[in-house]
Specification:
single chain, mainly alpha, globular
């Protein structure tokens, strides 16, 4: 019985160690989807990087870390160093989706910094690559960001065209975050162009999605598994946490 217990413990330890980077990455993505949990997301991504040297996995983790850095408005030197490490030309060979994602994130960073010409160039390259590989979520995201650029340039006609395309794709996938993001932007755009009826329509869509998301988040954060976000350094998650 003792041998059996020790053998099972060793097997569990080996399995956990083998998949640990993936587990921390998944927890980081989970944290990104929650309100006010970007610190947890970044901590999980940093933990994941300690347990992998696989090029595609490292690139994926760093791409998502960059999004967190941009959202948190962390020091520019930190972000610039990270962006340099995930330039499209530095993505693993033959990994089309990672390269397309890199262009999108570089475009997002340029948009946030007000470099509109560079942002448009990067996002258009994202669309070219995403369309070739049917990367629908990435296509929708690029359309939303381009719409935001045109909105800032007060080119409302092109902005609406971009964001409506994003919203249609988000509905087809479907992707709740993109649905909410594009609906909010469309509501704002139609309000600016004097189309109160459509502004109210998309405002209602955004509100409905928001209420559903808030309900889902409340259930999620009260689950035992939510405590896994605190698991960073210990060999095993504390016994009070559930591993699924």
């Amino acid at each position: 019985a003792v041998v059996s217990t020790q053998s099972g413990h060793y097997a569990g330890h080996h399995t956990l160690k083998h998949h640990r980077a993936s587990l921390h990455t998944a927890l980081g993505l989970y944290a990104m989807a929650l309100p006010d949990s970007l610190d947890n997301a970044l901590a999980q991504f940093n933990a994941a990087l300690k347990y992998t040297v696989e090029p595609e996995q490292v690139a994926f983790i760093k791409l998502n870390s960059a999004i967190v850095h941009i959202k948190q408005e962390l020091p520019p030197e930190q972000l610039n160093s990270l962006l340099e490490s995930i330039e499209p030309g530095k993505m693993p060979n033959k990994c089309h989706s990672l390269k397309a994602s890199s262009y999108c994130i570089q475009g997002l960073a340029a948009l946030v910094e007000g470099r509109m010409k560079d942002a448009k160039s990067k996002l258009r390259e994202t669309l070219v690559m995403a369309n070739k590989a049917d990367l629908n979520k990435l296509t929708s995201c690029a359309f939303v960001l381009l719409g935001d650029i045109f909105l800032k340039m007060e080119n409302h006609r092109d902005a609406i065209e971009m964001v409506r395309s994003a919203h249609d794709i988000a509905n087809r996938i479907p992707d709740v975050a993109l649905q909410m993001w594009s609906a909010e932007l469309l509501s704002s755009l139609y309000e600016k162009t004097g189309d109160g009826e459509r502004a109210a329509e998309y405002g209602a869509v955004k509100q409905k999605i928001t209420e559903k998301c808030c309900s889902d988040v409340e259930l999620t954060v009260n689950s035992p598994e939510h405590c896994l976000l605190q698991w960073l350094d210990s060999e095993f998650p504390p016994s009070s946490m559930s591993m699924v």
